[in-house]
Amino acid sequence: MAAPILLDRKGAVAYLTLNRPDAGNAIDAPLARCLLEAVEAVEADPAIRCVVVRASGRMFCAGGDVKALHAAGDALPELLREILEFLHPAVARLAKMEKPVVSAILGPAAGAGIGLAAVGDIVLAEPDAHFTMAYSRIGLTPDGGATWLLPRHVGLRRAQELYLTNRRVSADEAAAMGLITRVVAEGTLVHEVDTLAEALASSAVGALGRTKRLLLTSGDATLAEQLEAESENIAQQGMTVEGRTGIAAFVERRQANFGAAELSMTANAPRRT
Fold it and tell me: Could you say which of 3.40.50.720, 1.10.12.10, 3.40.50.2000, 2.40.340.10 is the CATH number of the domain covering 205-268?
């Protein structure tokens, strides 16, 4: 039986592929468990500098495996907790990972698939992609982190409408409202994602990681707290080989080689806090 999550690597880019195409890449317990294991593996590997979340087949993710949920009968609460025991830490790690994360959306995304789509720092989609919350349609409440992600991406008022009405959102509308980053030309998703991921992997990944952290914590911080966090992070980044390499390259009018700098950073940079 094929693994529910495929982990592939191309240079410094790791590709996590949802791999249950015959089930619409619906999330069951084995897929959630394998996803967390794969996320932990790429997070811990210093040679991986960018992570892509994508799916096999014609659908990004149908959400939870409704057939499995139905089959659970009276054990449904236990099954839901088992799935989320793995899925939620995976989403949290992707959001907080100090490496850029790209989501590649082909076809529909629904339910918990919305969280896996929205957790990307940059989200690219084919024109035929569309998004549906779908939870109340089956009498359940949201999961997968999207009730935290969507209000931040699209605003509370719009998130309320999407969750309460279950209306389908096209790729173009999703881009306009901020649910995804942009829609690519038909048939170009693989090329666009590869090009973007390679560019991110060759950039100042340490600085990107700190930037991700600043953005994620800004919503709960006062201006004074955020200014202090910015001061601390830029000072710490200035102590790294990566920071010094970027500044020197700019002054010398040449392209910075952050990949080489990262190797030195691993051994010499102060520990990030």
Answer: 1.10.12.10
